[in-house]
Design goal:
Largest sheet: 4 strands, antiparallel
Distance between the termini: 74 Å
Number of helices: 3
Structural class: alpha+beta
Helix content: 25-40%
Radius of gyration: 26 Å
């Protein structure tokens, strides 16, 4: 098989150009992109959580976790060799309960903080609903601060008006340590 002039002359030259532009060592490679500098994340960070759509909120939560992980890794890399090791992550202990609301229109959701630090209830997701008002069956962002060893009402789930049918729902919530 005979190669054309262009393939024989230009292919080795293109390989030489690719090798010449590649970094000589791994440490010369550009740093990984900082997820904290993402423009969409920064714009969502400036909005109140209640104003975010479900899709924006999911993107924000994912980027926020990536940003936190990136900052932790950067702190480990920048830490001097003789520095004390970083403090272990604190496991937040919480519990939830429901109680009939004052006027019997639904149930109040309470969250208890059994951790040694204050927490913030970032979101409460109510799903798999039957005979629950549409506005209650959603993701809510109460931003409720709960001191250690205390409990707070974070949400009221309302029943469908004038319904004699039994109601049902499931819920899950997301908490984070509160900044002091």
């Amino acid at each position: 098989m005979q190669l054309s002039f262009m393939t024989r002359v230009l292919a080795p030259a293109a390989a030489a150009v690719c090798l010449a532009t590649a970094p000589a060592r791994a440490q010369d490679a550009p740093p990984a992109q900082n997820p904290c500098a993402d423009s969409l994340y920064q714009s969502l960070k400036g909005k109140p959580l209640d104003a975010l759509s479900e899709r924006e909120y999911q993107y924000f939560i994912g980027r926020d976790k990536a940003c936190t992980d990136y900052q932790r890794l950067a702190a480990l890399v920048d830490r001097p060799a003789n520095a004390a090791p970083p403090q272990r992550d604190l496991r937040l202990q919480t519990d939830s309960r429901t109680q009939a609301s004052t006027f019997g229109e639904g149930v109040d959701v309470y969250i208890r903080n059994d951790s040694p630090v204050p927490i913030i209830v970032n979101s409460v997701r109510v799903f798999d609903c039957e005979n629950i008002r549409h506005s209650s069956c959603a993701t809510h962002h109460p931003q409720t601060r709960i001191p250690p060893n205390q409990e707070r009402r974070v949400l009221t789930i309302r029943y469908q008006p004038e319904s004699n049918m039994p109601s049902r729902y499931r819920l899950e919530y997301l908490v984070s340590p509160a900044e002091q």
